[in-house]
């Protein structure tokens, strides 16, 4: 067994090249300063992290968290019924159903976001339709506000919620529901007492995926939120591309990563506590 | 207690069960016995309300329940693989039915304690199903049904997943439990031994049809047709030239030596040569090729050192006339 540790070497190399080294670079840069022209100078300063605590940036972080929470909640509300519907289809229709959920991934994300712009803008598909049908007389402001950002976020992250929930529903033993009916549970009660608790793992996996993805999202707010809606993702993107302040961008990235880690840890702790002794369930 | 009137089940064009009548008496241990796919489980599930009959009516304690959903029927089922709720402890599993029926809390506690004691699960009450053996899970499944004091308990091959020895023990336990409680049991199995040991009455089913309905002794000793005779145990069929098939269980066949027999029994019907003697513990299975035909018969002989049958020995086969079962061809 003394050579066993070499077997892990390829994995370490892989993780090192693609994960550890880039992360290390970001960490190092986050403690650096910059020249007026955007050159990074390594003068070991905490200035970037201090700057994060300015009210402007704190409020952007707070907004981002709030948007991420809302996005997660809405994807659960919309995703669970969809996953449930697909899971109860006859076996041969389930695969096509899942493919329909995933088809949007085949199209470039930018293009899909612009498609939403075409639908929601003043002379867009939805406004035109509503005017033609006589429901409204003047176009509604559907784009470039918080609602539009939410629509875009939920739309783009929904599959990440649907797929894990589908998997957990698909693994659910239907006989448990029959047993519940047999013991006097109505379909609604059986759903509440059996289906929902036993598919919680799917919901929590989806929650992690959606929540983390929405924390870093910058394309949707950029395209659909207009100038008003700046989230952490946009802030970081700006630091790297427009403001040319890599050190501050790096510091923000590190803060975001640590924040995500802390939240996930709390989340898993809470989940484990809520389940009580049901660790084998 | 249960009355089925013209109950049938079709899936598309396929007839699973043609219109069938069946009555289950109060306090009876009734077994539906048959090979897999014979419709016995479908029949049980229709009584439970988990399957909708294509035609006919179901009465439970003289009340029609044909269109009632399972959660409004006063029956409880013990499922084949138990279907215990994995996220609930033993006690929570058992209490589930009482909670659903909103039984008051003190009564709940009392009844849960009762069935925990009855099934000897007191010490396991806080376990989760995954932390228990198959036999223990089985007892939880039974407790979960019994705690509701149902009019009828439906059991779908409840011992099928257990090993032989455990199954033997639980068969007796279950039969005792049923006897003590006096609750009507409808039990589905494909295991004839199980059916013979436990039941007051057996319904033998094949391809959705009821082949025979009778007490275990009748089914075994007086099978109504060839299917039942073969399904319920080893059987020898003879043609004695009377236009009927004569049927004899292997333990009813007696052997005597061809030469030097004392003749203190009915004369042998056939002579033949022993082709094999297989030791089975309490009995020897003796296989005999009959003279003048290719037919092989099997006779069970109690192990006896004084008269040990050997291969290639010539023997006569005789039986008492009252042991014959005549079937029309």
Give the SSE string of chain B.
EEEHEEEHHHEHEHEEHHEEEEEEEE
What kind of oligomer do you see? heterodimer
- What does the radius of gyration of chain B come to? 24 Å
Query: What is the straight-line distance between the termini of chain A?
Result: 35 Å
Count of strand segments of chain B: 18
Which chains make the largest contact?
A-B, 21 and 27 residues
Largest sheet of chain A, described in full? 2 strands, antiparallel
Q: Spans of chain A with pLDDT under 50 lasting ≥5 residues? A: 277-281
- How much of the sequence of chain A is in beta strands? under 5%
Number of helices of chain A: 13
Shape of chain B: elongated
| Helicity level of chain A | over 70%
The total strand number of chain A stands at 2
Q: Helix share of residues of chain B?
A: 25-40%
User: Averaging pLDDT over every residue of chain B, what do you get?
Assistant: 91
The biggest beta sheet of chain B is recorded as: 6 strands, mixed
At the fourth CATH level, what is the homologous superfamily of chain A?
Answer: MetI-like
Kindly report the average pLDDT value of chain A: 88
Described by the principal axes of the CA atoms, the overall outline of chain A is globular
């Amino acid at each position: 067994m003394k050579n066993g540790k070499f077997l892990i070497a390829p994995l370490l190399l892989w993780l090192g090249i693609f994960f550890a080294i880039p992360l290390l670079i970001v960490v190092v840069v986050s403690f650096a300063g910059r020249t007026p022209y955007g050159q990074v100078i390594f003068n070991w300063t905490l200035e970037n992290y201090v700057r994060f605590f300015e009210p402007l940036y704190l409020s952007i972080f707070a907004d981002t968290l709030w948007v991420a929470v809302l996005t997660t909640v809405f994807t659960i509300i919309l995703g669970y019924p969809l996953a449930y519907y697909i899971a109860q289809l006859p076996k041969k229709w389930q695969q096509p159903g899942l493919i329909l959920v995933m088809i949007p991934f085949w199209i470039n994300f930018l293009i899909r976001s612009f498609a939403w712009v075409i639908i929601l803008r003043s002379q867009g598909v939805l406004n035109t339709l509503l005017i033609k049908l006589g429901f409204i007389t003047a176009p509604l402001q559907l784009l470039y506000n918080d609602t539009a950002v939410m629509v875009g976020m939920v739309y783009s992250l929904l599959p990440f919620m649907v797929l894990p929930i589908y998997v957990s529903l698909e693994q659910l033993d239907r006989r448990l529901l029959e047993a519940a009916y047999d013991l006097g549970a109505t379909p609604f009660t059986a759903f509440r007492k059996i289906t929902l608790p036993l598919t919680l793992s799917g919901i929590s996996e989806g929650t992690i995926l959606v929540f983390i993805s929405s924390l870093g999202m910058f394309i949707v707010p950029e395209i659909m939120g207009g100038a008003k809606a700046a989230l952490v993702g946009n802030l970081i993107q700006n630091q790297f591309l427009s403001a040319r302040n890599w050190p501050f961008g790096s510091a923000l990235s590190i803060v975001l990563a640590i924040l995500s880690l802390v939240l996930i840890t709390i989340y898993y702790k809470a989940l484990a506590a809520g389940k009580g002794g049901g660790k084998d369930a | 207690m249960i009355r089925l009137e013209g109950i049938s089940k079709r899936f598309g064009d396929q007839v699973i069960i043609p219109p069938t009548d069946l009555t289950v008496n109060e306090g009876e241990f009734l077994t539906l016995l048959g090979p897999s796919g014979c419709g016995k489980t479908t029949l049980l599930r229709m009584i439970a309300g988990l399957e909708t009959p294509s035609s006919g009516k179901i009465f439970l304690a003289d009340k029609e329940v044909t269109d009632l959903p399972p959660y409004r029927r006063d029956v409880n089922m013990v499922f084949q693989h138990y279907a215990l709720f994995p996220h609930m402890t033993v006690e929570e599993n058992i209490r589930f039915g009482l909670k659903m029926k909103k039984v008051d809390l003190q009564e709940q506690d009392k009844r849960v304690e009762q069935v925990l004691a009855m099934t000897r699960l007191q010490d396991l009450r806080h376990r989760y199903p995954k932390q228990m053996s198959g036999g223990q899970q089985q007892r939880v499944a039974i407790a979960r049904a019994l705690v509701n004091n149902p009019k009828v308990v439906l059991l779908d091959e409840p011992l099928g997943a257990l090993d032989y020895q455990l199954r033997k023990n639980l068969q007796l336990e279950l039969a005792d439990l049923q006897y003590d409680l006096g609750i009507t049991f409808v039990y589905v199995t494909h295991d004839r031994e199980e059916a013979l040991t436990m039941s007051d009455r057996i319904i033998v089913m094949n391809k959705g049809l009821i082949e025979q309905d009778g007490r275990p002794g009748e089914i075994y000793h007086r099978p109504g047709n060839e299917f039942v005779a073969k399904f319920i145990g080893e059987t020898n069929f003879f043609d004695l030239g009377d236009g009927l098939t004569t049927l004899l269980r292997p333990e009813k066949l007696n052997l005597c030596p061809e030469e030097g027999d004392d003749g203190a029994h009915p004369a042998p019907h056939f002579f033949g040569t022993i082709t094999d003697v297989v030791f089975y513990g309490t009995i020897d299975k003796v296989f005999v090729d009959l003279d003048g035909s290719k037919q092989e018969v099997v006779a069970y002989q109690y192990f006896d050192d004084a008269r040990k049958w050997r291969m290639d020995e010539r023997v006569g086969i005789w039986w008492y006339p009252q042991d014959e079962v005549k079937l029309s061809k």
